Amino acid sequence: MNSQQDGDTCLEFPENAKPAIVAALNIWSTVLNSPVPIRVSVCWARLDARTLAQAGPTDFVENGNILRPVALANALAGRDILPNSTDIEVTINSTALWHLDPQNPIPAAQSTTHFDLTTNLLHELAHGFGFFSTEEAGAGIALWGNGSLNSPYDTFLQDANGNALTNRAVYPNNSLALLNAFRSNQVVFNGAQARAANAGRPVSIHSPSPYEEGSSISHVAEAVFGRDINNINRLMSPRAFWGDRNHNPGPIAIAMLRDIGWGTVPVPVTPPGVAVLRAPNGVATATPTYQWNAVLNAADYLLRVTNSSTNAVVFQQWVMASAAACQTAVCSYKPTLTLPIGSYRWQVQARGAGGTGALSTAMNFTIRPTTVPPASTPSYPTGTITNRSPAFTWSAANTAADYYLQIINRTTGAALYQAWVTNAQAGCATGTVCRFSRTLSVGNYMWRIMPRNVVGNGPASAYLNFTVQ
Ligand SMILES: [Zn+2]
Fold first, then answer.
1. For 285, which DSSP code?
2. 240 C-alpha vs ligand 1 centroid, how far in Å?
């Protein structure tokens, strides 16, 4: 079923584009606090070729002449002011060439044709959070939105002389003066946090001449931030780079969002949710990489690995979300830890400013040997013994699961015993030797031992001779 968003027909959403969206949302969730969930509606639609994606708030909350995007208004109020409505609408151009994989870089062969979807969504979502001006330009005039309303962002805009562009005494609404300001190349955003992030200076805003509809005023200056693919603050410049995979909103954009109100949103007081584990699961290597889904508002995670046989905790450590690259939606952490062969379970617990969440459901994994066990050495009985129930004793072989014990009467050649003896039957797990008692009659014997594991049989030992008197 197709739906409509902002006049565009939404096509069926491609399944393989979803991880990029989740990744973009997760990155912002580590930057912005909201005690109220932010609902984002994403539409996949044919847009004109010059537009990669577009976004904005679905609704606004008016207070005086300030028009707050609903996501920000909700966050500041600590409640959902417009329940049952989405907060941000994003429309993605289905005809653009997208790199959909948020985990990996754009392949070199696509570096001049493809755009990274997560990068573009990060940009668009910022507009939805309030990184936008309400300004419009008409014939020889400019005006503020919806009659004469301003966004919180607008209130930080200034000209070269420090006049607020929202000062109607200097810049009347519907005036050429306001249009001239918008195309002066001199507009700055002068918020305290933005200045602090920009070496003490107000941030240059995109204000070229001629005025560029859709780009002017609502972006940082292309000429200052947007021409170097390595500029850490390039995300909110008006044009996207082909081949640019930039999953960092940049300190200036974050500071500007804080200035417009996100910096005063109360820190959430609820603990983060429960992590869903991904890997290792089943057979694993001795040095697994642990992967779990990132949890909203988690600053760090407890990773605990337990030996399933002994219930001993073999690893337990708090891992910073950044150290596990959780901004990519899937946390991934490889501790310096080599596990011996055995069965394990692991769990994760998320912790954030609101407290510590519940421990996740455990996931099980097994570390199996990769080679057959080494030889085992029989040590007793040997020579002449009088005990008719000797404990056959041999060295435990690393990685062996069981042992083939063969006892042969040297006179008749008959096998008195030949069978697999498990580690448990021979008590091998508790020490470095295995012991297994058999009752024999008087006679001459020889015996040997051969270890085995899931990979196969290890070498058989040489025979040891003994006589029972
Ligand atoms: Zn934009």
1. -
2. 9
Ligand 1 centre to CA of 238 (Å) is: 5
Instruction: Find the domain containing 224 and state its range.
Output: 3-264
Q: Which amino acid, residue 378?
A: P
Give residue 101 CA to ligand 1 midpoint distance, Å: 22
What is the 3 state secondary structure string of 75-114? HHHCCCCCCCCCCEEEEEECCCCEECCCCCCCCHHHCCCC
Instruction: Record the pTM.
Output: 0.60
Residue 18 is given by DSSP the state H
Whole-number Å distance, alpha carbon 440 to ligand 1 midpoint, is: 88
pLDDT digits (tens, 9 = 90+) for 264-283: 887 656 789 999 999 999 99
Question: Look-up: residue for tokens 């490889």?
Answer: 334
Identify the CATH number of the domain in which residue 444 sits: 2.60.40.10
Query: CA–CA separation, 319 vs 185, rounded Å?
Result: 45
Contact 331, 321 (CB under 8 A): yes
Check whether residue 117 and residue 210 sit in a common domain. yes
Do 246 and 120 touch, CB atoms closer than 8 A?
Answer: no
- How many distinct structural domains can be found in the chain? 3
